[in-house]
Amino acid sequence: MKTENHKIADLLRTRRNEKRKSFAVLLDPDKVDFVTFPVFLEFAEKQGVDFFLVGGSLITNYAIDQLISAIHQYTSIPAILFPGNGLHIHPSADAILFLSLISGRNPELLIGQHVIAAPLLRKSGMEVLPTGYMIIESGRLTTVSYISNTTPMPRDKPMIAACTAMAGELLGLRNIFLDAGSGALYPVPADIISAVSKAVEVPIIVGGGINSYEKAYSALEAGADVVVVGNGIEENPEILPEISACVKAFNDHPEKVYWKNDQ
What we know:
Elements: H1 7-17, E1 22-27, H2 37-46, E2 51-55, H3 64-74, E3 79-82, E4 95-101, H4 107-124, E5 127-135, H5 143-148, H6 158-170, E6 175-179, H7 190-199, E7 204-207, H8 213-222, E8 226-229, H9 231-235, H10 239-252
Parallel strand pairs: 1-2, 1-8, 2-3, 3-4, 4-5, 5-6, 6-7, 7-8
Helix pairs in contact: 6-7, 7-8, 8-10
């Protein structure tokens, strides 16, 4: 049996222990302009993006391999699959978030799709990152809620989120992903992030609705280890340096959390 690869998992765990933050950009194959994509990738690397997440809840343009190939060609940033289902797997990725939707009760997304994907993943050589995926209510019905056929967790019940994350950790999941969903009206509330971060020891990834320095700051201050930006960058690329500056402020001065105008 081949040696398991834990490179990215070890990096995430080390950064959490050192209280260092990371910045991930979510790339939806349906929304990537491959003509301008190389320029964007080079810009993202210069801005200090740590990870690219590749995927989405619903993909109609199956260009995952083309997208990952471009990432590897133009950057040294890891490409991590963020699959909506077992069809969204490609072995050229560096790793995969092996998502178990622990906020819902849909058995297909708790274990069903995983059974189908497991043999392919075992043979692929990809690093597998077992991740508890939690959808948080965001003010509107998002694609992920609709496609997953699950009800988001209430945004005003941080202890429900904390206990769910705790259960996921006890089951052996090695990351927790709190997601408000693509196109969220509101990001994941800070008190939910804080409650989850205090309840578990594994890295906390937070995405959905983070489209400004202020929202990234709020998530990081509450305890997020990785902030994920997707639609915000697609609609306004200038958000990328803003979020990058926020992450850098936390990492450069861990003894003092800097607000935007304090730098």
